[in-house]
């Protein structure tokens, strides 16, 4: 499971690439060193609130947009969590769906 720092970094990288910016360009826009942007993107450091505000502005998103990273978290498939996707499914069908999911992942 990724840490919040890693997810934040992945989200910043995703938004940066979507805007067609290099790490160097983003660093220049927010007055930071390129290697600091790199450390943020790989989750090795936690940026200050001020830095996050500047990065968000440079990436054209609201600050809360940096934390919209649910889609970046790997989903664990479990029998107990399958109700969320399939509604009320009996245990036999859940086990079958679980086997299919495991086979597809191989």
What can you tell me about this protein's structure?
The chain is an all-alpha fold. The chain has 6 helices and no strands. The protein folds into 2 domains: 69 residues, 434 Repressor (Amino-terminal Domain); 32 residues.
Brief sketch in words of this structure:
Helix content is 58%, strand content 0%. It has 106 residues and is mostly helical.
Q: Which superfamily, in CATH terms, is the homologous superfamily of the largest domain?
A: lambda repressor-like DNA-binding domains
From the 3D structure, determine the CATH topology of the largest domain: 434 Repressor (Amino-terminal Domain)
Helical element count?
6
Beta-strand portion reads: under 5%
**Total domains:** 2
Instruction: Count the E strands.
Output: 0
End-to-end gap: 20 Å
Broad CATH class of the largest domain: Mainly Alpha
Series of secondary-structure elements, N-terminal to C-terminal: HHHHHH
Low-confidence stretches: none
Radius of gyration from the alpha-carbon trace, in angstroms: 19 Å
What is the CATH architecture annotation of the largest domain?
Answer: Orthogonal Bundle
The helix fraction, in percent, is 55-70%
Tertiary shape: elongated
Structural class, please?
A: mainly alpha
Q: Average pLDDT, to the nearest integer? A: 86
The major sheet is characterized as: none
